[in-house]
Design a protein that fits this description.
Blueprint (H helix, E strand, L loop, with lengths): L4 H27 L5 H17 L5 H38 L6 H16 L1 H13 L4 H14 L1 H20 L7 H19 L6
Helix pairs in contact: 1-2, 1-8, 2-3, 2-5, 2-8, 3-4, 3-5, 5-6, 5-7, 7-8
Length: 203
């Protein structure tokens, strides 16, 4: 029995949507402890790269395998970023309660806000790097900073995309069922362009 081309295209789209939903669900479940969000994001990136963009079909196994091998480095990177955001929130609380509203604290708050936002693409690229390559964490951080400085337009694109996806999830919580994987797919294209351009070696 012949299959129509239109029918195959619909089946492919439905399969892709199902995979996006599954990956987003896995990301949410594995991110629930909060401390594991970094490792879950690395696993999501690798799953998108290998299964949605690539030709692997073992989506669940790819996610679990990457989560396990990325856990230590991704968690350290994530907690470092969370610490900066936590200091910003604490500083904001002190200013709001007028416990410390000095000009130095006000300046620190602006600096921490810029740092928290500005480091988002660095954090994402680090988590993507960790999911695909092996290097000491210090080298990963320095490499990602340098790669983004050399690709400033891609840095801006990653930043805007991360902020838009994050804002949508914040304002429309139900969008978390598909946006994490879909957003990762968008971000993956730019991240891989950076990796390929500078000849990163796959492990």
């Amino acid at each position: 029995m012949f299959k129509s081309k239109h029918g195959e295209e619909i089946a492919e789209k439905l399969t892709k949507i199902a995979n996006l939903l599954l990956l987003s669900l896995l990301w949410v479940i594995f991110s629930l402890p909060i401390v594991t969000l970094g490792a879950a994001t690395s696993a999501l990136y690798a799953s998108v790269y290998h299964c949605l963009i690539g030709e692997r079909t073992d989506l669940f196994k790819t996610f679990l395998r990457t989560f396990k091998h990325s856990f230590s480095q991704a968690t350290v990177a994530w907690l470092f970023y969370v610490t900066i955001v936590g200091i910003f929130i604490l500083n904001w609380f002190l200013i709001q309660q007028r416990l410390d509203a000095s000009w130095l604290n006000q300046f620190s708050q602006v600096f921490l806000l810029i740092l928290s936002i500005g480091l988002l693409p660095v954090l994402f690229l680090m988590l993507a790097y960790i999911s695909r390559f092996r290097d000491p964490l210090k080298k990963i951080f320095l490499n990602c900073v340098m790669l983004l400085l050399l690709n400033f337009t891609k840095y801006l694109w990653l930043l805007v995309t991360l902020l838009v996806v994050g804002t949508f999830i914040w304002l429309i919580p139900i969008s978390v069922v598909i946006l994490p994987a879909y957003g990762s797919q968008l971000l993956e294209k730019k991240a891989e362009e950076i990796f390929i351009r500078y000849g990163a070696k796959v492990v």
